[in-house]
Amino acid sequence: QVQLVESGGGLVQAGGSLRLSCAGSGIIFSVNVMGWYRQAPGKQRELVARITSGGNTNYADSVKGRFTISRDNAKNTVYLQMDSLKPEDTAVYYCNTVRSSGAPGFTSWGQGTQVTVSS
Q: Which of 38, 29, 23 is nearest to 114 (CA)?
């Protein structure tokens, strides 16, 4: 049974930083493309960053240059360093595997972690 647990969210002022973590069990992160998704109120969930098994990264235009995704295979953990945060980054953030289409690999999600950026 796959379990994904996100943490590290919180309330921060615009321009601030947060580091999110996603720990997994029942899945080996190192052989999967892992990604961070977010869902803002009233909006669809969107993919904001992904990292391949080889360490290549890709970002949504809205976060490029501000967010950095990384992984620690020994800990089976994926991180999202978020800098220069903006109010529009406010959302619940989730991790999941990423299919080639960009769709999430698992239909079940963790509880997510809330990020709130005040102006």
A: 38
CA distance 108 to 3: 9
Mean pLDDT by 10 residues, the chain (119 residues): 94 98 90 95 96 95 98 94 98 95 90 97
- Can you tell me the distance from the alpha carbon of 67 to that of 51, in angstroms, rounded to the nearest whole number? 12
Residue 93 CB partners (closer than 8 Å, separation 6+): 6, 9, 20, 36, 37, 38, 48, 80, 112, 113, 114, 115
Rounded to whole angstroms, what are the CA distances from 63 to 2, 4, 25, 60, 67?
28, 23, 28, 6, 6
**Could you tell me the maximum CA-CA distance found in the chain, to the nearest angstrom?**
40
- Helix/strand/coil for 62: coil
Which residue in this structure is represented by tokens 């360490």? Answer: 55
Looking at residue 31, what is its pLDDT? 86
